[in-house]
């Protein structure tokens, strides 16, 4: 046998002595006790984080509404005074 075949044979023989892992006797009871301690509460996300995310969403929506109202009026006024081609091109803004 050459060295490759010998190494393959040794590897295959090494799994002959493997035995099955043993589970502790009271593992099932420990799992059931932990589940019962939770009292059915499943909390994946803390409420503090939910309130922070909601506050961020409210701030972002408020800023978007403010910028839409404020900048759309100033843009239309500046377009009317600057360039007649641009005024005609963006006339759909003034019509609504």
Q: TL;DR of this structure?
A:
By secondary structure, the protein is mostly helical. Helix content is 73%, strand content 0%.
Features:
96 residues, elongated, mainly alpha, 5 helices
| SSE ordering | HHHHH
Q: Give the CA-based shape.
A: elongated
- Please mark out the parts with pLDDT under 50 across 5 or more consecutive residues, or reply none: none
Please tell me how large the radius of gyration is.
35 Å
What percentage of amino acids are in beta strands?
under 5%
- How much helical structure, as a percent, in the residues? over 70%
Number of beta strands? 0
Number of helices: 5
Note the gap between the termini.
88 Å
User: What is the mean pLDDT?
Assistant: 79
Largest sheet: none
Question: What class do helices, strands and sheet pairing give?
Answer: mainly alpha
Topology of this protein?
Elements: H1 3-14, H2 27-37, H3 47-82, H4 84-89, H5 91-95
What does this structure look like?
By secondary structure, the protein is mainly alpha-helical. Helices cover 73% and strands 0% of the residues. The protein is built from 5 helices and no strands. The termini are far apart. The model has no long low-confidence stretch (mean pLDDT 79).
